[in-house]
Amino acid sequence: MNRREAVVSLATVGAALASCNRSSLWPGRGQPLPSRPREVVQVIDAQPTIEGAGVHLRRSLGSRALPLLDPFLMLDEFHSNRPEDYAPGFPSHPHRGFETVTYMLDGAVEHRDSLGNHGHLGSGWAQWMTAGHGIIHSEMPVHQPTSHNAFVYVFDGEAELGPSRAKVAAGQLAVLGAGDLFTARTTSGARMLSFAGRPIGEPVARYGPFVMNTEDELRQAVDDYRTGRLIQL
């Protein structure tokens, strides 16, 4: 599935106001649509999790507290000064039925996949991978007018989000309500990721590295992987 309508942006704010307004017009009037600020409706604490071959990370989206925010399935953050927390990496593993985005804040990771792609991601780099029917890959350390679902993940500092200035600290995810305007303020400095995507509205069945629509499709994906039929070139 190709869902590139999702918007991923990195926001760095000082003691400033960051905002995004709709640019569409009233039909036949040539006037901008009135803005409606998005309010914070939920704040989620990221939970410690171990994935891959032993990578210690924090999961905010895809956890029991927030298993899904259509069309977003999962958001993991991992960083540490201890090599043993990240050195094991994510050796070759399968995916089917969704897309992954990797954004490197700092450090480096090497990507390889079964389609022959190979890349070295450095600080500030991003990678978007479409699993489609099926792919095996490894990652090793070295416009939304108002129907879109949106959330913000703060990874550094503390910010005040929305008209009510809800405080969101590093390691917390804030789910945003309906609207077409996003505001962020901070007095001490903060860095965050903001996400928005149009809901797909499809049933979601998930198991490990596979995301399908039904349990039968999940069983088929697992069987295809075990029998070597996952990848079709």
Features:
233 residues, mainly beta, seven-stranded antiparallel sheet, four-stranded antiparallel sheet, 7% helix, globular, disordered N terminus
Largest pleated sheet = 7 strands, antiparallel
Structural Rg: 19 Å
Shape: globular
N-to-C series of helices and strands: EEEEEHEEEEEEEEEEEEEH
Total number of beta strands: 18
Helix content: under 10%
Low-confidence spans: 1-27
Structural class: mainly beta
Strand content: 35-45%
Distance between the termini: 17 Å
**Mean pLDDT metric:** 82
- Helix tally equals 2
Structure description:
The chain has 233 residues and is mainly beta. It has helices at 83-86, 215-226, and strands at 7-13, 40-45, 47-51, 55-61, 75-77, 90-95, 99-103, 109-113, 118-121, 126-130, 135-141, 149-161, 166-169, 172-176, 184-185, 190-197, 205-207, 210-212. The two termini are 17 Å apart. Residues 1-27 have low confidence and may be disordered.
Quick synopsis:
The protein has 233 residues and is mostly beta strands.
Topology of this protein?
Elements: E1 7-13, E2 40-45, E3 47-51, E4 55-61, E5 75-77, H1 83-86, E6 90-95, E7 99-103, E8 109-113, E9 118-121, E10 126-130, E11 135-141, E12 149-161, E13 166-169, E14 172-176, E15 184-185, E16 190-197, E17 205-207, E18 210-212, H2 215-226
Antiparallel strand pairs: 1-16, 2-14, 3-4, 4-5, 6-11, 7-10, 8-9, 8-11, 12-13, 12-14, 12-15, 12-16, 17-18
